[in-house]
Amino acid sequence: MLTIGQKFPQFSKTAVVSIEKGKEFETLTSDYLVNDDNVWTVMFWWPKDFTFVCPTEIAEFNKNFGEFRDRETRLIGASTDSEFVHAAWRRDHDDLRGLKFPMLADTSKSLAEDLGILEPTEKIAYRATFIVDPTGIIRWVCVNDLSVGRNVAEVLRVLDGLQTDELCPCNWEKGQETLTV
């Protein structure tokens, strides 16, 4: 599995960005992650569309979209399902119709494989979350078992800590003092 300090892999994938007819799809590339505007990226993966735990996580990320935006951070959701399955799920599920971030389709499973998050038996992505800095370097990775949803508040807390570029003690939260040496 790729880890902290490594470059996020190159990719070019189709993503669902809307449910409006004719405007559903865009191509996202790894170039999207690298920028001079100090914009970070959180890419989070789920195993399968049309499941039970996954929409709870996606909806929670969407509910916190403004929190990520306020931190100059892009959100990208991803799975190994196709863009057509993503679009159908978004149209079908009440909590997913109004998503404010793209749903990346890694149908070839090449990006999940490059990241090292492909579950070996079913060949689906683990519940992995990557925080990527504006230079395209992975700064945080968290992977959950397929049955356990992640904690979006913890993703935000870690992002806050990384963006301070200072030493943050255990249970540190934004607004608290950092450590001085």
Calculate Rg over CA atoms.
Answer: 16 Å
Q: Assign a percent range to the helix content.
A: 10-25%
Strand order in the sheet with the most strands: 2-1-5-4-3-6-7
Main beta sheet: strand number and arrangement?
7 strands, mixed
Strand content: 15-25%
Uncertain stretches? none
Structural class, from helix and strand content?
A: alpha/beta
Instruction: Give the SSE string.
Output: EEEHHEHEHEEH
- Terminus-to-terminus distance: 32 Å
Q: What does the average pLDDT come to?
A: 97
Q: Count of DSSP E strands?
A: 7
Shape: globular
What oligomeric state is this? single chain
Task: Chart the SSEs and their pairings.
Layout: E1 12-16, E2 25-29, E3 40-45, H1 54-63, H2 65-70, E4 73-79, H3 83-92, E5 103-105, H4 110-115, E6 127-132, E7 138-144, H5 152-164
Parallel strand pairs: 3-4, 4-5
Antiparallel strand pairs: 1-2, 1-5, 3-6, 6-7
Task: Walk me through this protein's architecture.
The protein has a seven-stranded mixed sheet. β6 and β7 form a beta hairpin. The termini are far apart. It has five helices and seven strands. The model has no long low-confidence stretch (mean pLDDT 97). By secondary structure, it is an alpha/beta fold. The longest helix has 13 residues, at 152-164.
Short description:
The chain has five helices and seven strands, in the order E-E-E-H-H-E-H-E-H-E-E-H. The chain is of the alpha/beta class. Strand 6 (127-132) and strand 7 (138-144) form a beta hairpin.
